[in-house]
Specification:
It contains six helices and six strands; from the N terminus they run ααααβββαβββα. With about 220 residues, the protein is α+β, with helices and mostly antiparallel strands.
Length: about 220
């Protein structure tokens, strides 16, 4: 077994329940999740990528998203869509699947103009204005494009047809330390055995059916 790189998904799952994170990212023994809402979200991100990168029209059932794509295309600077970013433990950029990768992920959209960047994250689910996912993306963006000084970002709540709160994501040192603190806790646990479970509001939907906290356990 091998310790996975940090990512927003891994860090969030570990914080909610280390046991779920172990099964999902270390043992990798959970069945692939496939739910209509999840599959739709994947399709929407793919449609935005093809629209912004290749000017491919949205599918008929996503035509309403064209207004967001047009807005994203406006402005000065260079545009990035579904950009893969990864950094080593010292904050230097590295190969996404390389041996040195410590933190990696995709950013849905960013526009960089000199030392300022704006990020957008397309969301198809229920609103939750937690900036952590944006902060992770901003940290990797800053490490990749060192000249950046200010990064702001927002979630775009597509179901509600609105842009959420605009967050200042420029406290890169705080985000870096937050990731390092969580990963130190991860590294203190043995890889070859299940990590301890934590009861949380998501237990009823957890795929780890053997967990004592799972209300739908086997």
């Amino acid at each position: 077994m091998k310790l996975p790189p940090a990512s927003y998904s891994f860090l969030t799952d570990f914080r909610n329940c280390p046991r779920k994170a172990w099964h999902k990212f270390v043992a990798r023994d959970l069945p692939r999740e496939s739910r209509p809402a999840m599959d739709y979200g994947i399709a929407v991100h793919k449609a935005f990528e093809e629209r912004l990168r290749a000017h491919k029209p949205f599918p008929d059932d996503m035509k309403e998203f064209e207004a967001y794509a047009l807005a994203a295309e406006q402005g000065e600077g260079k545009m990035y869509a579904e950009e893969q970013l990864s950094i080593a433990g010292d904050g230097t950029p590295t190969d996404f699947f390389g041996e040195k990768v410590w933190l990696r992920g995709k950013i849905d959209f960013a526009r960089i103009n000199e030392n300022v960047a704006v990020m957008l994250d397309w969301k198809t689910g229920k609103p939750n204005e937690d900036p952590f996912e944006l902060e992770i993306g901003a940290l990797m963006l800053k490490c990749t494009y060192r000249g950046l000084e200010t990064i702001r970002g927002a979630y775009v709540w597509l179901k509600e047809k609105r842009i959420g709160r605009m967050f200042d994501l420029s406290n890169f040192a705080r985000t870096f330390n937050e990731v390092k603190t969580t990963m130190k806790a991860v590294e203190a646990l043995p890889l070859e055995q299940e990590w301890p479970p934590t009861s949380n509001p998501l237990c009823g939907w957890c795929p780890v059916k053997s967990c004592p906290h799972n209300t739908n356990r086997e």
